[in-house]
Amino acid sequence: MDRSNVINLISAVQTQDDNGVWRETLLSRQVFCNVRSINRNEFFEAGRSGLNPEFVFTMFYGDYEGETMLEFEGKTYSVYRTYLTRTDTLELYAERKGGTNGKS
């Protein structure tokens, strides 16, 4: 079942500080999308590659700028695959990333 939601697309940008040290800064922006669970076939196929798929986020393809991470309901996900449909929408296939901060 699809649900309409807002997600935060996250991109990492390299910036140089006053001392010449390069630092990674995360930039986030909100987009509207529909969310659905991964289907059984995608779950098993991605699992064979060591991935842990969880959701498919469907959005207008013009809203996507190549981000590799997203935040949904307070949790961070990694985009492992995209698929452009015939109806000007893009599907982002995402897996949950483990971490130590409780949000990942």
Give me some keywords for this one.
single chain, 104 residues, mainly beta, Thrombin, subunit H, six-stranded antiparallel β-barrel, 6 strands
Describe this entry's structure for a reader:
This protein has 104 residues and is mostly beta strands. It has a single domain (3-96), classed as Thrombin, subunit H (Beta Barrel). 9% of the residues lie in helices and 58% in strands. The protein has one helix at residues 40-48; strands at 3-16, 22-37, 53-60, 69-72, 75-84, 89-96. A six-stranded antiparallel β-barrel has the order 1-2-3-6-5-4. The radius of gyration is 15 Å and the shape is globular. The two termini are 24 Å apart.
What would a concise description of this structure say?
9% of the residues lie in helices and 58% in strands.
Itemize the secondary structure elements and their pairings.
Elements (H helix, E strand, L loop, with lengths): L2 E14 L5 E16 L2 H9 L4 E8 L8 E4 L2 E10 L4 E8 L8
Antiparallel strand pairs: 1-2, 1-4, 2-3, 3-6, 4-5, 5-6
Distance between the termini: 24 Å
Gross geometry: globular
Number of strands: 6
Query: Sheet bearing the most strands, described?
Result: 6 strands, antiparallel, barrel
Instruction: Summarize the helix and strand pattern as letters.
Output: EEHEEEE
| Average pLDDT level | 88
Derived from helix and strand composition plus strand pairing, the structural class reads: mainly beta
The CATH topology annotation reads as Thrombin, subunit H
**Mind telling me the C-alpha Rg?**
15 Å
Strand content range: over 45%
- Low-confidence stretches at least 5 residues in length (pLDDT < 50)? none
Q: What is the H level of CATH, i.e. the homologous superfamily?
A: Bacteriophage SPP1 head-tail adaptor protein
- Tell me the number of helical segments per DSSP (H or I, 4 or more residues long): 1
Instruction: Compute the number of structural domains.
Output: 1
The level-1 CATH class = Mainly Beta
Which range best describes the helical content: under 10%, 10-25%, 25-40%, 40-55%, 55-70% or over 70%? under 10%
Describe the strand arrangement of the main beta sheet, using strand numbers: 1-2-3-6-5-4
